[in-house]
Amino acid sequence: MNGRKEDLLLYAVTDRRWLQGSTLYKQVYEALEGGITMLQLREKKMAEQEFLEEAVRMKRLCDQYHVPLIINDHPAIAKKAGADGVHIGQKDQDLCSTRAMLGPDKIIGVSARTVEQAMLAQEQGADYLGVGAVFETGTKQDAQVIPLERLAEICQSVTIPVVAIGGITKERMGRLEGSGISGVAVVSAVFAQKNIRRSVRQLKEQAMQMIPQAGHERLLEISAPKDAGEQYHG
Q: pLDDT tens across 37-81, in order?
């Protein structure tokens, strides 16, 4: 497996719909300060060059906090930006060609909704799975909720880590306990909040209690930038 399992604990996925007069850069900065452990940059409507420029900026920011940056759906942009990996869906570029493009050391996550999809992704070399939607969500209008029993079945069928995604909030997170997941992917529970930093800390504490595993000790402390002088500047 590429990447560290513990980095999947609190996996934030960006969404510009929640900017509310702010900037995505500032929101990601606040999320990193709060302690997210992985970031996925998702841009469904942005032109490729603009997406690449944003990815490069986010990579520099994430590197200050030792947090992996994953690009949604675009292996070419992930490669050009020097991102840590990519996440692909069932309808995106296939995993084998994605691995050929990115090389053996990059993180590749794959969306899965069934045991069969999960096992195939593992066989083809996926590093982790994103499984959902586990709850109703407004983030993806076409997302269909899967039973929590199926989430547990998927976790039991593979040896690579599984991240639950879809409608996860601090009120709902406890319902995932015992499913076998290694982390939760959150969107509005981070980026739609007035106090992103505080919300992240609360979510992270919940996740650590629900998903105890080796390596979480280092996550108890809020990640500090590599260069204390390089802070957010607007």
A: 999 999 999 999 999 999 999 999 999 999 999 999 999 999 999
CB crowding 17-48: b at 16 or more within 10 Å, else e: ebeeeeebeebbbbbbbbbbbbbbbbbeebee
Token code pair at residue 122:
């593992």
Query: pLDDT tens for residues 172-201?
Result: 999 999 999 999 999 999 999 999 999 999
Residue 85 DSSP symbol: E
Identity (one letter) of the amino acid at 228?
Answer: A
Show the tokens assigned to 181: 């997941």
Are 163 and 70 within 8 A, CB to CB? no
Query: What is the three-class DSSP state of 122?
Result: helix
Lowest-pLDDT range of 17-26, 79-88, 91-100, 225-234:
225-234
- Provide the residue count of the chain: 234
DSSP string, 148-181: HHHHHHHHHH-SS-EEEESS--TTTGGGGTTS--
Structure tokens at 199: 């919300």
d(CA 122, CA 50): 32
**In this structure, what are the phi and psi dihedrals at residue 231, rounded to the nearest 5 degrees?**
-110, 170
Of the candidates 110, 194, 109, 111, the residue with the CA atom closest to the CA atom of residue 146: 111
Is the alpha carbon torsion for 66, 232, 76, 69 positive or negative? Answer: positive
Q: Report, as residue numbers or ranges, the catalytic residues.
A: 42, 111, 140
